[in-house]
Amino acid sequence: xxxxxxxxxxxxxxxxxxxxxxxxxxxxxxxxxxxxxxxxxxxxxxxxxxxxxxxxxxxxxxxxxxxxxxxxxxxxxxxxxxxxxxxxxxxxxxxxxxxxxxxxxx
Length: 106
Known about the structure:
Layout: H1 2-18, E1 22-32, E2 37-47, H2 60-105
Antiparallel strand pairs: 1-2
């Protein structure tokens, strides 16, 4: 009985700690002094996802499922946002190179 309570408390505390991890892409504009143009890039930012879903006290099965869902959301946001950043930065890099070549030839 005591071990179940301790395990439940640990699961709830871990779920609160892990629920704060959400990753999203952010657009940053900067000046490229080599080409003398304004350019853009994407960076990964982290945010806080506040969730009271796991504090309901529905038993260890519910807490385990809640912890798994929070891990999936955090990992999923990192994978999707990371993919968006890679593709977006590739497009921005190609755009920057094209604008830099056009500026240097004129």
